[in-house]
Design goal:
4 copies of one chain form a homotetramer. With 304 residues, chain A is an alpha+beta fold. Chain A contains 13 helices and 10 strands. In chain A, the strands form 3 sheets. Chain A has a 5-stranded antiparallel beta sheet with strand order 3-2-9-8-7. In chain A, strands 1-10 form a two-stranded antiparallel ribbon. The longest helix of chain A is centred in the middle third of the chain and has 16 residues. Chains in contact: A-B, A-C, A-D, B-C, B-D, C-D. The interface between C and D is large, with 35 and 36 residues.
């Protein structure tokens, strides 16, 4: 397995030259497009290749964490009463008089507007506490107590995040954010800026694959039904507008981030962490998807 | 004329019971739906009926003022290079990853998002100065030096104006607002809260009708080309989604506000100010449009 | 006037090299982009310059004729109960299960889908009779009994008009076409293929300008209210997505066609016919709009 | 298992009173909402309960068959080059001049417009042959040589199918249908009208579950990669706008039809056929989904 992983990575290295590194903030633009890493966690061992120890910001993969903790805090049904789970985005007309309220069924926890709404569902008496809880939860599910926010990325996100700010005020206008918008965005921006590596993502994937049970501890860290719920949402909308294509090529629940990471899992057996920062036009790591495609085909991993 | 005006008003009084007073902020909800007023300014005299002295907030009619002063400060072409003038709103997809930037041709100075952008085109070294200039300009073109902001309405608009905030951050995200968003919104909210009466609106309409020349002074207060430009924009999009219908029924350049006011004019001869706070679903005063329709038909005012 | 017209045409000749001749059917692509003509009809004489005698197909300008005859046959209110008059097009989702019916207020008589619906409102016991009535009406209002359908263009339109066919079946699906779709499309395609010249369009414009009264006969050919209704609709949506811009630059009711024609009028005084086949991206004749802009500015024609 | 199935069916019988039977054609409206059936095919036996023998029209479930045969005829990549696989429908603007062509990535084989396009990808020298091949293929994969078209339903669909006609002409206009539109629609309407029962759907599901291998014969009827491709598409978009919700509640690849059928499968082990004609607002059988949800939960079938 270890050998096979190294081989797959080498075969996909050429794809690191396709696509573009995200450049909407300077910190992301600094990423080295030649870096590529993979980490696979199974119940009979862990395997890795390339730059798996390289740290990068978690970005949109954190949406999975918002959804996990919000579901644990409130139950799945409560969360589904607050945000939809369909991939079919409806357009929003910015221009008419009528108070065209956003409808809950038009947002999705795997896109920014839905993730901001879900973030507020994480229970806390203040946004500071919310951030603290989310950070500690992330350390728990990755098994890495050292995870921290990249402060420079956080500040950049906060300074330039006007589209997220617009989306958050749309939510506020529709009563889908109850508290202070800027404070909540601070939590959102900070959590998007948590630095992780491939191992962290693989551990997180393994927890979902193992239906919420800690691999070593055997302890049920999140309910089995929650793990399945998350995997269902990841499969239908975890890869942005490329979720359908990803399902046909890879066939695994996964979530990507513009930092170049992908967290994937094979329910029942495997967690996978990927890093390669050059993205396709939909915001997904190109070499990352290629590695997953090869791995899935060779090891017959598809859930379909 | 005076008599005819009073008659028309009485005939339309029954329509004050149709539609609804705007209620998104408490101050607007307090409006008395039974009030109805009209004021007509011509070069051979002024005529009025009903509650023409009643003050109400100018609301969206102020968009006309933003456009007038921005055009004067920068020239028409510059303004048209920054915002479109088509009524055809394009939908905005709140949900995808891609940086779907707003395009200038998709916004219009007569709807909120465009008006916010135009507001910043008013030249000033600070937003305080911008507000000061706009207030003084409004006093000039209405000939009423006593016009003031209704502070309670302003505070309400500011506190609840999350949709406008969302639109402003969309503009910021697309580089269509350069400076501070909240400060600019303060100018916007304050100017929407200026208290006017029917006479003020009629004077403003008369200035446009007179192609920018002061009726008494004979002085060219705004360029003739600017007056025509404003009237063209008002005709194609001054009455929100009801602009086409209004053109077929009334046939005059006009702008409405959710405060219940309408400012209209017959190019060459007449300025009209209207007040009646109950609105149709498109945000236009119902009894107000009825009075304009009757007046236009009986006096053969249509520009078509 | 005659001299001024020739001068304006020469000044605008250079714009015939901008834009593109419509090429979706071979017959239109054959148009000579160097041709340019103008014809102005007033109550004190007629003036013309360039290729005003050149014949071309009327195309979308015929939408005005559908609307005129439908209004005469049924009354304005009946027509407005069947199609909207707003320029704000709403998007149609081709992809969902729900029977998202088209709403009347979302279509407009100046765009294809609305014009097809209006065409059926012309009273007739058969579509052959409908075509006959429309042809004769067109001959009446242009004062040209020799007008005929260009059969080659008609056949091309019919053979390639799949988008119009799609729109017509959408109307049928929403109950907005009652009779046979293909037969109605035959009327539509045939009427779009009527050959006219600048004089024909100017005469038609003059009838609208004269509020429906025949210039020579003094006979009220169409009701005054109908003429104004048509002009209101032309002003807010006669130039496709360029109607707002056209209002600010020219300020006259007008309708364009992809054949390169424009029919315009100055209410009260003037009908104008234009020909120049190279179009901008919105489907309007570039040199044609330039001539109208110059003419309007120099003769102070704007209605605003 | 047999007993458990009967119990689940009885527990869900009450849901047959929720929602509405499809009524856009008289033949569908005649369905008896009290009927409810289920059939489960596994490699160690077949189980069934209720009205599993009742015949109904396959409707949209046939989209799966179009996709299977088109993929077999042309290869998966060729099919994906012709239609997209994302669930995110893009709106289509029916109203503008510009030739807003449909893009392949905006259509999906599991919604009408995409299914019509995929239908033409089935290789044939005529549409009669296409229908013949599709019918025989359907008989093959269900193992039921007696399957036939319900002629009354076919005629009704053909007579009232104006929205599908509109969609087909949109495809034609964008070059996404090459041949005759009405002939192709005839194939489409006929195939939607094939009468099946729960057993037929379960056999079809079992073939997908078994990755294309015939259960008894052991023969590879469709390639394994094709079976997985189909299951991926079913999972992300087989249940219309309810696909995301279905994934979270049931977690199986499935396709529904407005006739009241659902074809589902558990990859590796099970094919399921469902019938209950009362539908939710998204067009899916209410009691059908309930039965699948219970079955999935009790037997731990979810793929996630």
């Amino acid at each position: 397995m270890q050998e096979r992983l190294e081989q797959i990575l080498e075969e996909c290295r050429k794809y690191t030259w396709e696509g573009e590194v995200a450049d909407y903030i300077p910190e992301l633009a600094k990423a080295n497009r030649e870096e590529i890493g993979i980490y696979v966690a199974t119940d009979h061992g862990e395997f890795f290749a390339g730059d798996w120890e390289k740290q990068f910001t978690i970005q949109s993969i954190v949406k999975t964490i918002f959804l996990m903790l919000a579901a644990q805090d409130n139950g799945i049904q409560y969360v589904k009463d607050h945000v939809g789970v369909e991939a079919t985005g409806k357009p929003f007309n910015a221009i008419d008089y009528a108070e065209h309220k956003l409808l809950r069924e038009h947002i999705n926890p795997m896109v920014n507007i839905g993730a901001i709404a879900v973030c507020e569902l994480v229970k806390a008496s203040s946004n500071d506490e919310r951030l603290e809880r989310l950070l500690n939860y992330t350390r728990d599910i990755t098994g890495n107590p050292k995870l921290e926010v990249d402060h420079a990325v956080y500040l950049s996100e906060k300074r330039t995040g006007h589209k997220n700010r617009a989306l958050a005020y749309l939510l506020k206008n529709s009563g889908m954010i109850v508290g202070d918008v800027e404070e909540l965005l601070d939590v959102y921006f900070a959590m998007c800026s948590v630095k992780v590596n491939c191992q962290d993502l693989a551990k997180m994937g393994m927890l979902l694959a193992n239906h919420g049970k800690g691999v070593k501890s055997g302890r049920q860290i999140i309910p089995k039904a929650d793990a399945r719920f998350i995997n269902a949402v990841l499969t239908t909308s975890g890869m942005y507008d490329g979720s359908g294509e990803f399902a046909t090529r890879v066939g695994l629940p996964a979530k990507s981030g513009v930092g170049g990471g992908i967290m994937a899992n094979k329910p029942g057996s495997m967690g996978i962490g990927i890093y390669s920062p050059a993205l396709d036009r939909k915001g997904n790591s190109i070499a990352g998807i290629k590695m997953l495609e090869k791995l899935s085909r060779e090891m017959d991993l598809s859930i379909f």
